[in-house]
Amino acid sequence: MSERLCDEVGDQLRREDTRELIIAWCRCLLDDKGCLDEASCLSLRSYFIEFLVHIQISLPPDMGVEARNDLLERERQRGMELRRSGTIVRIWRIPGQFANVGIWNTADATELHAVLSSLPLFPWMQAQVTPLATHHLEAGLGSA
């Protein structure tokens, strides 16, 4: 998208505040066109759904070292893209396992599935996904 088009989408978003426009506006950043700063896009991600995602990887024992290293490097690169875009909000490794747990932020479960399946390790992945809702203590609604 051109910078002008991104500006037009941003203006429309301020007037209409629709989910489709939020997604389109964020696409400007995700397409690396530089028309949005990362903080603006990440603040819009609050309109999306947070998921707790636990990922366990089981690579075949006969996978060659070179193939494994290449796969892990491609996974690292894709993970960094998702981190920069705000899709992966936080991620932790689980000591003693080839596993991680993280907070992922997408428009819906369908988008989350598409993102997970874009990971190079997806064929060897088992993922447990839990959609999250804001707790009243996080929202500042109470002191209970």
Beta strand count? 4
CATH topology of the largest domain: Alpha-Beta Plaits
General form: elongated
Distance between the termini: 47 Å
Fourth CATH level, the homologous superfamily of the largest domain: Dimeric alpha+beta barrel
What's the tally of helices?
Answer: 6
Task: Characterize the biggest β-sheet.
Answer: 4 strands, antiparallel
Reading off the top of the CATH hierarchy, the class of the largest domain is best stated as Alpha Beta
Arithmetic mean pLDDT: 80
The tally of structural domains comes to 2
* Arrangement of strands in the largest sheet: 2-3-1-4
Low-confidence stretches: none
- Roughly how much helix do the residues carry, as a percent range? 40-55%
Q: Would you mind describing this structure in some detail?
A:
- This protein is an alpha+beta fold and 144 residues long.
- The protein folds into 2 domains: 3-46, no CATH class; 48-133, Alpha-Beta Plaits (2-Layer Sandwich).
- The chain has 6 helices and 4 strands, in the order H-H-H-E-H-E-E-H-E-H.
- The protein has helices spanning 3-16, 19-30, 38-44, 65-85, 109-117, 136-139, and strands spanning 49-57, 88-93, 99-106, 125-131.
- A 4-stranded antiparallel sheet has the order 2-3-1-4.
- Helix 1 packs antiparallel against helix 2 and helix 2 (19-30) packs antiparallel against helix 3 (38-44).
- The longest helix has 21 residues, at 65-85.
- The protein is elongated and about 50 Å long.
- 13% of the residues are buried.
- The mean pLDDT is 80.
